[in-house]
Amino acid sequence: MKNTKNTPLHFTNVRIQDAFWAPRLAANRQQGLDRVYEQLQKTGRIEAYDLDWSPDSSRPKPHVFWDSDVAKWLEGACYSLMNHQDQDLLGRVESLVDRILSAQGEDGYLNPYYTVVEPENRWTNLRDRHELYCAGHMIEASIAHHQATGDRRFLSAMRRYADLIDRTFGPGKGQLRGYPGHQEIELALVKLYHHTGEKRYLNLAAYFVDARGGHPYYFDQEARQRREDPAAYWAKTHAYTQSHRPVREQETVVGHAVRAMYLYGAMADLAREQRDRELRVVLEKLWEDLVSHKLYLTGGIGTSRENEGFTPSYHLPNQDAYAETCAAIGLVFWAHRMLHLHMDSRYADVMERALYNAVLSGVSLEGDRFFYVNPLASDGTHQRQVFYSCSCCPPNINRLLPTIGGFVYSTTGDEITTHLYIQSEARIEFDPGTVTLIQETDYPWDGVVCIRCEMDVQQSFTLKLRKPGWCQEARLYLNGDRLPDDIPFEGGYFRLERRWKPGDEIRLQWLMPAHRVYAHPDVKATVDSVALMRGPIVYCLEALDQPVPLHLIRLPRSVSLESRFETDLLGGVGTLVGKALAADVDAWGGALYQPDPPDFVRVPFKAIPYYAWANREPGAMRVWLPEA
Amino acid sequence: MKNTKNTPLHFTNVRIQDAFWAPRLAANRQQGLDRVYEQLQKTGRIEAYDLDWSPDSSRPKPHVFWDSDVAKWLEGACYSLMNHQDQDLLGRVESLVDRILSAQGEDGYLNPYYTVVEPENRWTNLRDRHELYCAGHMIEASIAHHQATGDRRFLSAMRRYADLIDRTFGPGKGQLRGYPGHQEIELALVKLYHHTGEKRYLNLAAYFVDARGGHPYYFDQEARQRREDPAAYWAKTHAYTQSHRPVREQETVVGHAVRAMYLYGAMADLAREQRDRELRVVLEKLWEDLVSHKLYLTGGIGTSRENEGFTPSYHLPNQDAYAETCAAIGLVFWAHRMLHLHMDSRYADVMERALYNAVLSGVSLEGDRFFYVNPLASDGTHQRQVFYSCSCCPPNINRLLPTIGGFVYSTTGDEITTHLYIQSEARIEFDPGTVTLIQETDYPWDGVVCIRCEMDVQQSFTLKLRKPGWCQEARLYLNGDRLPDDIPFEGGYFRLERRWKPGDEIRLQWLMPAHRVYAHPDVKATVDSVALMRGPIVYCLEALDQPVPLHLIRLPRSVSLESRFETDLLGGVGTLVGKALAADVDAWGGALYQPDPPDFVRVPFKAIPYYAWANREPGAMRVWLPEA
Question: Is residue B393 annotated as a catalytic residue, yes or no?
Answer without folding.
Answer: no
